[in-house]
Amino acid sequence: MPAGKKKISKAERQRLLQEEEERRQKEEEEARLKFEKEELERLETQRVEKEKWRQLEQKDRERRNEELEELSLLESCFPEAEKLKRETRALAQWKHYTQCDGSPDPLVAQEMNTFISLWEEEKNETFEQVIEKSKLVLSLIKKLKLILLETPPCDLENRIIAQHQGSILRLQELLSLKMDVATELLLRVREASTLVDVDSGNMEKIIRDENVSLFVWANIKKNPRYRSVKFSETQIGFEIPRVLATSNVALRLLYTRYDHVTPLRLTPATEEDYEPMVVEPVKKEEPIEKATTEEKTVIEEKASIQEVEPEPKQEREFSLVQEEETNLEVLEEIEVKRTSDHEDENSETNKYELEMRLLSEAVSAAQLHLVENIVDIPYAFEKFQVDLCHFSTLGGVYHLDILELPPQYKPVKGWVLVEIRQEGLQRFTYPPETTDEPDPENAFPPIEVTLEVHKDVIFFEDPKVIRWDTEGTARHQEGQRQGITAGKRWKTDGISCVYYDRENRLLTFNLDTLGPVALIQDAHINMPYQSWELCPLDVNRVVLTVTTLFIELQIHIKENLCMLASVKLKGQEHQCHLEGRWMTPVPFILALKEAGLNIFPALYSHFYVVVNNKVPLVEVKAYRQIALLSSAFVFRWSKWNMACNSTNVVIKVKEYQAEGAENRPWSLLMFSGDRAQILRIREDSDVFSEALKDNTEFHSTLYHMVKDFASPRAMERVRSSDSLFIDSVCHMLLSIRVLSYS
After folding, report:
1. pLDDT for 296
2. What pLDDT shows up at residue 436?
3. E-state strands within 210-319
4. Which of 100, 107, 309, 517 is most buried, most CB within 10 Å of its CB?
5. Please, what is the Cα angle at 546 between 543 and 550, to 5 degrees?
6. Would you say 651 and 636 are in contact if contact means Cβ atoms under 8 Å apart?
7. pLDDT tens digits, residue range 511-560?
8. Which pLDDT value is given to residue 275?
9. In whole angstroms, how far apart are CA 88 and each of 93, 95, 144, 556, 570?
10. Are 467 and 397 in contact (CB under 8 A)?
11. Residue 56 vs residue 236, higher pLDDT
């Protein structure tokens, strides 16, 4: 045992252990008391919070009806806007009638049938004449499509839908037929022998227009060494095999800016989908006449009944008695009309209120349909078939054809002789269905094609090439719905060696057989969005900014018009032909889609995009109220919108002021369709919480929530907003769906 170390006695050790135990018990007691105190404080805080929450809910319930009534008055702008749009459509039809410009009214089936029949009877039209006529035809097709897309479903009967779609199909088919006939005329008589190239000995013809471009090459010399066809002053052309270089054929590239190949799919819903909301439009009653005018009208009507041939003398006495009785009846009717004037005025008011109520229900149903998602995938697709729900065609259609060269004219002793074939323009089958060649791969290789991609179409990735397949007899699910055979659809097979020169916008690929060709792009390439913002610019004018992975779009909205203000492609300014052009919402949306700027989800888009789907009714209510407030408040994307559940939406909002707007703080606002509240968390908080911000209350609407912190001037701007402007902002929000797709 080391020296100097004192041994602890048993009693001392016992004392130390006892002190340690007492200290431990004391610490445990202090911890228990502290926990109990904290628990009591927590329970008290919870009780206070619950009581405060209960009081806020009670206050919210007490004023709920009042707030909803005020919101209903503000939202009357939507049926008012629809009523104005109906009047605008009726006025446009009347203006067309009074113009008498010879063009048919697309709404009148008889005029459309007459126009189509008369054009069918016109013969020997040149290609230039067909192109000129096609401008009117394309205008009619566009008008019919807009009628189907813009008219609310409650105003469209199945008979009218079938009528308009039938007119569209007939115009498309007739236009295609006229193009073929004009091509035959071009090859047969007028040009084939007069436009022969000196070097090659073959014919070439190019006709360009804003909607149609024609490139024709006729193999006059049949030189087997001339296998590269390039149209002058372009990079467009073909590399043809030997068998075509020695055949009596012509090559045609007919490029159309429009797509009349893909089956129509204009009305996603039928009337049955809106059955609960379908209402007959209430006809506007004629204004009530003044009493004096009514007296004259009734007397004149009664008197007109008495205007007959001159009566014989023996019947005049009886006629005078009858006339006196008639006058007494007229006076009695006038007296009845006067007493019922007041009742008519009340009836007129009731009819107007009923009309607006029914119109409001119809508009609400149409808006709800815009944000609904279908439950099942639309179609079952076969191998190589293009899913047109996933992809969309862009830039029109390239009709590539190998044609049998029609007989050429021959001058004989001052006469011109030419053989006219009744069957018209014939396609040359390549490769042939039967061949004696043992090695068809070498005898009938693919044809190399080089095309120009239209400058007004934006491809964010290299375009994919598809071909229209007209073969096959089996029926397919989509074919059954569209009324076409299963073989008639876009496919991806038979295409190889695709190369895209992005700088020169040239696309080169090999085709096993020629036919209609189109370019496609993922319809959801710009979804989901990275952010969005809705900001006022002036009275009844806002800018909606949508930022995606590839682009940033700025859309200006005023009255019932929309305009593409700017496009930034990967951070760089990009000139778009649509910039600065004001259009109504539906044509504007179609124009953006055709340009490749698709930020408009469809009913089935949730199958192809990872989204934060919100309950449709909540989403619609949010968009309607955001549109109501858009004249005076800035709304912006919030990351917490993804964190909350599908029954809530979270957005950032602040009052807009021309000066110092950037310095004003944002409020995080959560809305469930029935309740709005300002959240305590900030955008840069770490964890999401639904806790209510201090010194704030619940409200039943977004309008009343922002009213708590808004200035009187801002609320005055909201109340004075134009109904068409609010409706247009709401339509764009419903079409882009920023709350579910960002």
Report:
1. 41
2. 57
3. 212-218, 228-230, 237-239, 249-256
4. 517
5. 140
6. yes
7. 999 999 999 999 999 999 999 999 999 889 999 999 999 999 999 999 99
8. 36
9. 9, 10, 16, 22, 40
10. no
11. 236
186 secondary structure, DSSP code = I
- d(CA 134, CA 179) in angstroms, rounded, equals 10
The encoded tokens of residue 676 equal 């709005």
pLDDT tens per residue across span 652-699: 999 988 665 566 789 999 999 999 999 999 999 999 998 888 888 889
The residue whose two tokens read 């989204």 is: 611
3-class DSSP state for residue 81?
A: helix
Pairwise CA distance, residues 536 & 635, whole Å: 9
The per-residue pLDDT for 222 is 85
Distance in angstroms (rounded) separating the CA atoms of residues 730 and 734: 6
Nearest one of 608, 455, 458 to 521, comparing CA atoms: 458
pLDDT at 430 over 60: yes
Segment (H or E) for 400: strand 391-404
486 vs 656: CA distance, rounded Å: 55
How far is the first Cα of the chain from the last one, in angstroms, to the nearest whole number?
A: 79
Phi, psi (deg, nearest 5) at residue 262: -60, 135
Q: Tell me, what's the pLDDT at 129?
A: 94
Q: Residue 129: which H helix or E strand, with range?
A: helix 127-150
Longest dimension (CA), the chain: 167
Instruction: Output b/e per residue, 17-41; b: 16+ Cβ within 10 A.
Output: eeeeeeeeeeeeeeeeeeeeeeeee
Q: What is the H or E stretch that residue 501 is in?
A: strand 495-501
What CA–CA distance (Å, rounded) separates 158 from 272? 10
Bond preceding residue 411 cis, omega within 30 of 0: no
455 in Cβ contact with 210 (< 8 Å): no
Cβ contacts of 351 within 8 Å, gap of 6 or more: 282, 285
The percent of residues in the chain predicted with pLDDT above 70, rounded, is: 81
What's the CA gap between 315 and 325, in Å, rounded?
16
Query: pLDDT category, 279, cuts 50, 70, 90?
Result: very low
The residues pairing with 534 across neighbouring beta strands, listed in sequence order, are 544, 635
Give the number of other CB atoms < 10 A from CB of residue 249. Answer: 22
The per-residue pLDDT for range 52-73, each reduced to its tens digit, is: 778 878 888 888 899 999 999 9
Q: Do 727 and 82 meet the contact criterion of CB atoms below 8 Å apart?
A: yes
Handedness of CA 657, 661, 667, 673 (dihedral sign): positive
Overall average pLDDT of the 502-508 stretch: 94
Q: Which among 705, 623, 714, 619 is positioned nearest to 667, based on CA atoms?
A: 705
Among 206-220, 274-288, 663-677, whose mean pLDDT is lowest? 274-288
